[in-house]
Specification:
This protein is about 35% helix and about 20% strand. It is an alpha/beta fold.
């Protein structure tokens, strides 16, 4: 079939151009260009081996979602950090809304750290309101029996049974604004026999006093005085020590934070190596 242009020129096209077909749909956006790079070591495998799509990995997105930050770079260190926060949970399971440190989780970790040859020192971070007396003493006894140097740092608070845990390390620090509450042992729940219960609590209290005085520079007389002091805590007896006060009575070794604690721990690690 001749076109008007062909008739005017008197020629017939030998090879008409093919129909380009319908154009792109303006409502459909084109796919963005994807840049592909060779897959590095340790990268997850994709559909096309040897290549990966550059962008945020699933691990990064999960970390941002769960922790609110991107993953920290892996740092090789001979110091292991343990945190004891919230309430120390013992034989009874606390409500789910409570922030707890479970002693059945802490004990296996401490045993593993004692056996790990690559770990030379242990850093204990405390911000606890106390909790189960026997569970706290169990954690403190294990820390005190470790053959590796350990340093504790009280940040925020190291109250009640957190006091024995803080002094159980080889060296202890407390932040200038951190506090420690010393008070007699309390009992929650039903009391079956008053005389028998009192004797049990008295013996348990002696265990706590003996452990603290053995692993710190405070005397038993001074510790009991702080424990039974009246007028400082509302409707109760006991004493609150803040920062430097805990050092002055001999409970904690030094006032300091993370930097001072790590420096001290490195010094204790290097000492045996120099011998």
């Amino acid at each position: 079939m001749r076109t008007r242009y062909d008739l005017a020129l008197g020629t017939i096209p030998d090879d008409p151009e093919p129909d380009p077909g319908p154009g792109p749909d303006p409502d459909v956006l084109p796919d963005p260009e994807r840049r592909e790079e060779p897959e590095g070591p340790g990268e997850p495998e994709h559909d096309h081996p040897g290549k990966r799509v550059v962008g945020r990995t699933k691990g990064v997105l999960e970390s941002v979602k769960e922790m609110g930050s991107t993953p920290l770079p892996e740092v090789k260190s001979n110091i292991h950090c343990l945190t004891i926060v919230g309430q120390i949970e013992g034989h009874l399971v606390l409500p789910p809304q409570n922030k707890t440190t479970k002693y059945e989780h802490m004990i296996p970790q401490l045993v593993a750290l004692e056996q790990a040859s690559e770990v030379k020192g242990i850093l204990i971070i405390l911000n606890t309101v106390g909790g189960d007396v026997e569970a706290g003493l169990a954690i403190a006894e294990i820390i005190a029996s470790l053959t590796k140097p350990s340093v504790s740092v009280v940040l925020g608070g190291g109250h009640s049974i957190g006091v024995p845990v803080a002094v159980s390390c080889t060296h202890s620090f407390i932040a200038p604004t951190a506090s420690m509450t010393i008070h007699p042992i309390r009992l929650n729940g039903l009391v079956i026999g008053v005389p028998q219960t009192y004797e049990y609590l008295d013996k348990m209290q002696d265990r706590v006093v003996g452990f603290v005085t053995e692993h710190s520079n405070i005397t038993e007389k001074k510790f009991r005085e702080l424990m039974f002091r009246t007028g400082e805590l509302a409707r109760d007896i006991g004493t609150v020590l803040i920062g430097k006060e805990a050092v002055e009575v001999g409970l904690i070794n030094e006032v300091g934070g993370i930097g001072a604690a790590i420096k001290k721990l490195n010094e204790m690690i290097e000492e045996p190596e120099k011998v």
